[in-house]
Amino acid sequence: MEAPFILWNFLPLIKTSSHYHQPIQTVRLSVGGVGTPDACWKRKIHFTFEDETELVEEYDVKTQCLLTRKWKKKTTLGGDGKWDFEVGEPPTLLNPLDEITEANTNPRFSRSDTAKAFQWRIRNMPYPLDTYQIQVDNDMNSLILRTTNKKYYKRFDIPDMQRMNLPLKQDALSLSHANNTLLISYTKPDEILQYEKQLKQHLSSVKSLDESQGDCKTS
User: One Pfam family for this entry, by name (predicted)?
Assistant: First the structure.
């Protein structure tokens, strides 16, 4: 069960660009997740904006690392839109009627951060490490990943940096590769680390209405 909505007065940085200039009091918060198998190790924060845009964030209870951040906006006709994952990835839906499932060899791009770095994993990338090149596009304040064999190209950004109007820096980037997976890391600047520290302090004091009645058992 979710707690009643309350005003969230200190989070101007969680807003998308379309919400960035709205008064912060248009953001409401609920905390939920109690009673689910994941509730014992996940903390779920559910924001609803004045225009009915929704934001859900999930945190690891022990590490306080962000596991999921997803947005949902109303369609032009007023219906529910699809969840757009900024951090994490949607669950894989399998068709039980498919007797033969073709192996998915297409690259799979997802973001999964650590305490000190923004990180992205691209699975099904078999090429050696020296095949990959990543650079900052200063004009667009975005990142460009390409391969020297011209098999893969992707432009992406870091919404957290954009929301704080922070420029990207080339020396913050690093690449590693193992098990057909390319790992891209961007070291978080001090401004991000300080903001996340303050945010976690606030979130740790927010409790669900039924948090004490959950199914989690402590030893």
Answer: DPCD
Q: Are residues 86 and 31 part of one domain? A: yes
81 and 38, same structural domain?
yes
- 132 part of a folded domain: yes
C-beta neighbour count of 18 within 10 angstroms? 11
Judge whether 65 lies within some domain: yes
Q: State how many domains the chain has.
A: 2
Sheet containing 132-137: give its strands across. 132-137, 142-147, 153-156
Say how far apart CA 9 and CA 26 lie, in whole Å: 9
Characterize the bridge pairing of strands 54-60 and 153-156: unpaired
pLDDT, one tens digit for every residue, the chain (219 residues): 333 333 343 444 444 444 444 433 344 444 544 445 555 677 777 877 777 788 888 888 777 788 889 888 887 777 778 888 898 888 765 455 444 444 578 999 999 999 999 999 999 999 999 999 999 999 999 999 999 999 999 999 999 999 889 999 999 999 999 999 999 999 999 999 998 888 777 766 665 544 444 455 544
Residues 6+ away with beta carbon under 8 Å from 41: 60, 61, 62
Distance from the first to the final alpha carbon of the chain = 24
Residue 170 belongs to what domain range? 108-188
Other CB atoms closer than 10 Å to residue 89's CB: what's the count? 14
Predicted TM-score (pTM) of the model is 0.74
